[in-house]
Amino acid sequence: MPIFEISKNKLVTVEKKNFPHEKDLQLLIEDNLQEVFNCRFVASEFSTGAHHAGRIDSLALSEENTPVIIEYKKVKSSELINQSLFYLHWILHAVQVMGTNIELWKYLLFSNNTLYLEKVFHDTYSKNKIEHTSAKSPVMVAAGKKAAQTRATSTYTFEKHLEEKSKQIQQLILIIRDFVTGLDTSIEEVPKKFYIAYKSSKNIVCIQAGTKQIKLWVRLKPNDVKDPPKFFRDVSNIGHQGTGDVEFSITSPEEFEEIKKYIEYSYNKVGG
Question: How confident is the model over 57-83, as a mean pLDDT?
């Protein structure tokens, strides 16, 4: 579907263009990693060492402080995933982690200098996948086994967050879940140890089910909340579990109704 610019009540097609060089795209993303992927920049053209003899286009850290590898291609290439897996071997050897996510994003650049990003592929590489792609390397298998043991005792699910909670809290968290995931089919549910995050390119809202209330941390600035309800709190200078400087502590569907607009506002600000 083409992109249109509205000019005096007329729709004018915005032409597509491309970056002259891959490096132009790379520098733009690196300068805006926090805004685009909620990551902190570490290094450009990062060497993977003598064994792999390669370089990572952009190396970053996620908000959970896990390594993020970013590769850039101007055109579609079947080698993109293979190249990412090649670097995956190196990162597994370096930090011995498990449950690695690979995402493929496409971009469109338009003549009015609008950049559009869309996730077109997402897969989680489990122990079996990683062992297969590493050709049963003893080092990789050992790392995989160690990481699998860690995952076996630290797997977080939505259902786990509901365990031993009252029926009232369980029903309320389901109402919240239905609303947030209903904003956009691309919104992901990511259960963590202490909360459940709902995200697109960034976390939109994080929720924590307590015994008597549910806390929601919304990715907004405190001054974005006009006429705040009594259960609002500015946590920009206070330690808290989820991402976002705005906290709401609610106990009923009626209170949730009051803050729906702020979650939707956060979704719109993140950009879908």
Answer: 75
Domain extent at residue 101:
4-152
Domain count, the chain: 2
Alpha helix (H) residue ranges in 121-225: 127-133, 138-152, 158-162, 167-182
pLDDT in tens, 206-228: 999 999 999 999 999 999 998 89
CATH number of the domain where residue 233 is located: 3.90.1150.200
3-state secondary structure of 171: helix
- Can you read off the two tokens belonging to residue 272? 């879908």
List Cβ neighbours of 39 (8 Å cut-off, separation of 6 or more).
33, 60, 61, 62, 63, 68
Look at the block and give the residue holding tokens 């489990």. Answer: 126
**Residue 44 in tokens:** 């450009």
Rg from Cα positions in the chain? 21
Instruction: Report the percent of the chain where pLDDT is more than 70.
Output: 75
Cross-strand bridge partners of residue 55: 47
Q: Which long-range contacts (CB under 8 A, 24 or more apart) does 133-142 make?
A: 133/85, 133/88, 133/89, 134/89, 134/92, 137/89, 139/93, 140/89, 140/92, 140/93
Residues 137 and 165 in one domain: no
Ranges of beta strands (E only) in the chain are 4-7, 10-13, 16-17, 40-47, 55-61, 67-70, 100-110, 115-125, 188-191, 196-199, 203-209, 214-218, 232-234, 246-250
Q: Are strands 55-61 and 67-70 parallel, antiparallel or unpaired?
A: antiparallel
Domain termination residue (choose one: 152, 184, 209)? 152
